[in-house]
Amino acid sequence: MVKNDSRLDEVDYKIMGILQKNARISISKISQKVAMSQPSVKERISKLEEQKIILGYDAVFNPTKLEKGVTTFILCKTEKCQSFIEFCENSKEVSELHRISGEYNYLMKVQTASIEDLAHFQDLLIKFGNTKSLVSMKNNIKSRLMF
Prior knowledge:
With 147 residues, the chain is of the alpha+beta class. Helices cover 36% and strands 20% of the residues. The protein has helices spanning 10-21, 27-34, 38-50, 81-89, 115-125; strands at residues 70-78, 94-99, 106-112, 129-135. A hairpin with a 6-residue loop joins strand 2 (94-99) and strand 3 (106-112). The radius of gyration is 20 Å and the shape is elongated. The two termini are 16 Å apart.
């Protein structure tokens, strides 16, 4: 069980793994999978939420069906950090932005309908500095943590 010091045991990790695969699974099914009572499972999940280990439950969308099928990772080297962040926050193409170490200081995940749309987006980035784009050919492992 989750303790006050936030240490997790094997059952907590198993519950989190189950929820990560299907956040809509019922408490009843989770309790069967971890061989615990439903109230015990519910209590563990509640504690994980209270301790901000579980931050939320997200819907996952098919980018191709939403005309966002071209995924590109763009490295950006800029000295205009605040205006760059604001630009990214206001750009519907940017789905993630990470501050990173190394030669470049930002890594963004961009999703567009086409290569032409990507080229237009990249034209908008020129004013911020140097960029390097890497178009994703295939996502072999979806976003996850290992439990």
